[in-house]
Amino acid sequence: MNVTATSSARVYDPRKETPPQESNRTELGKDAFLKLLLTELRYQDAFKPVDDKEMIAQMAQFSTLEQMQNLSLAMEGLAKMQHATQAAALIGKKVTATVGDEVITGTVSGVKFKDGVAYLVVEGKEVLVTDVTEIS
């Protein structure tokens, strides 16, 4: 049975995921947003203070940004758990995987976790679930 993608949605690949502190982000994070807001308040004209409605809108934006980041972290955790569950479900099944130029075929004897990433143990070799091309 060949395994193929059913949609063009982004697939979780543990080898490509990087922690937030390691990635080069270009978007405005919550810390930068808060610094910008405080700087704006510090240097505002005393004769033209920030409107109450504008301040409330900025605080709402900050709150929304923080909640979106929390949701993003929760989704990453969910993707890792799903990946681990998929790997565990393959124990005892015969799989074929392509790792680089090497094709590995055998029965999955276990699952190992390294740095939060699940590897299938096939014929004594460690294989990512995303490298599996056939399950039988």
What does this structure look like?
This protein has helices at residues 30-42, 52-89; strands spanning 94-99, 102-114, 117-122, 125-128, 132-135. With 136 residues, it is α+β, with helices and mostly antiparallel strands. It folds into 2 domains: 26-89; 91-136, Roll (SH3 type barrels). The chain has a 5-stranded antiparallel β-sheet with strand order 4-3-2-1-5. Helix 1 runs antiparallel to helix 2 (52-89). The longest helix has 38 residues, at 52-89. The chain is rod-shaped and about 75 Å long. The N and C termini lie close together (6 Å). Mean pLDDT is 79; it is low at 5-9.
Our count of helices gives 2
Task: Quote the distance from N terminus to C terminus.
Answer: 6 Å
Mean pLDDT: 79
Give the number of DSSP strands: 5
Q: Percent range for helical residues? A: 25-40%
Please describe the topology of this protein:
Layout: H1 30-42, H2 52-89, E1 94-99, E2 102-114, E3 117-122, E4 125-128, E5 132-135
Antiparallel strand pairs: 1-2, 1-5, 2-3, 3-4
Helix pairs in contact: 1-2
